[in-house]
Amino acid sequence: MNKNSTTVKNINLGSFNVDETQKLIFDEGIFGFEHIKEYYLIDANLAPFMLLQSIEDEAIGFIVCDPFLFFPDYEFDLSEDAKNLLGLDKSTDLLILVIVTLSERIEDVSANLIGPIIINIKTHKAMQYIVNDPKYTTKHYLFSNK
Amino acid sequence: MLVLSRKINQSIMIGDDIEIMIVDIKQDQVKLGIVAPTSIKVYRKEIYDEIKTANIEAQKISKESLKKLLDKAPKKNEKDKNEEQ
After folding, report:
1. Disruptive mutation site among B61, B70, B77 for chain A (greatest number of A CBs within 10 Å)
2. How far apart (Å, rounded) are the C-alpha atoms in residues B49 and A134?
3. Residue A99 forms beta bridges with which residues?
4. Which residue range forms the structural domain that includes residue B21?
5. Which of B41, B61, B74 sits opposite A102 (nearest CB)?
């Protein structure tokens, strides 16, 4: 048994084997879930989506994706403060993911572009960043032009 | 909630490290200047609330909705062309 592997469970999707390379540390958690500081980023056969799952609470997990897959023009400036908090010294260490809100109706599935998850893939530090641009909101529809 | 009245250029201290100053007052809008350590995040409340609400909504992952999403979504790489319908 690989001593670095762990099992993480999502209440709806089941259990997954993960290793430390998939761990993300959110020093401040994310908004509304500030008490959860550790998540694992899991493939879970959801490509192009992934599961961002808390190890502490199996009910706390989020579907995330690469925003550029659906919104190729997405862009924002990352503040120096945020870069320092993540220990980011190379832009190539930066990974941006967005949280997706599911819906029974596919045209209502949306991504939060004003609060992306930014990750330093070298240090595994992550945070939910607030983009300072009024053209972005919490609801950008993946499959419709609303 | 502590309620204080301030005039332009007066400040409020929160703890030793956070200062809020009234920079300008115009009709129905107050401009605030905020000095805080970089570890303290400062946001407009309605944005914080919006993102918090969106996170709470997104936490609800139903298997049915997820299946619908995966049926519709593009595959990330084009390698498996024989799966296209």
Report:
1. B61
2. 15
3. A64
4. 11-71
5. B61
- Residue in this structure with the two tokens 């690469």, named with its chain if needed: A66
In the numeric block, which tokens belong to residue A54?
A: 């808390």
- For residue B78, pLDDT over 50 is answered with no
Best to test chain B binding among A12, A130, A132 (most B CBs inside 10 Å): A130
Task: Establish if B84 touches chain A: CB-CB under 8 angstroms.
Answer: no
Of B54, B63, B72, which has the smallest distance from its Cβ to A101's Cβ?
B54
Q: Give the model confidence (pLDDT) of A28-56 as tens digits.
A: 999 999 999 999 999 999 999 999 999 99
Task: Compute the mean pLDDT over every residue in chain B, rounded to the nearest whole number.
Answer: 88
Q: Are B45 and A99 in contact (CB under 8 A)?
A: no
Domains defined for chain A, CATH in brackets:
5-141 (2.30.290.10)
Domain count for chain B, please give it.
1
ipTM of the complex: 0.93
Measured CA to CA, the distance from residue B37 to residue B10 in angstroms comes to: 20
Q: Are strands A125-128 and A117-120 parallel, antiparallel or unpaired?
A: antiparallel
How many A-B residue pairs are in contact by the CB < 8 A criterion? 99
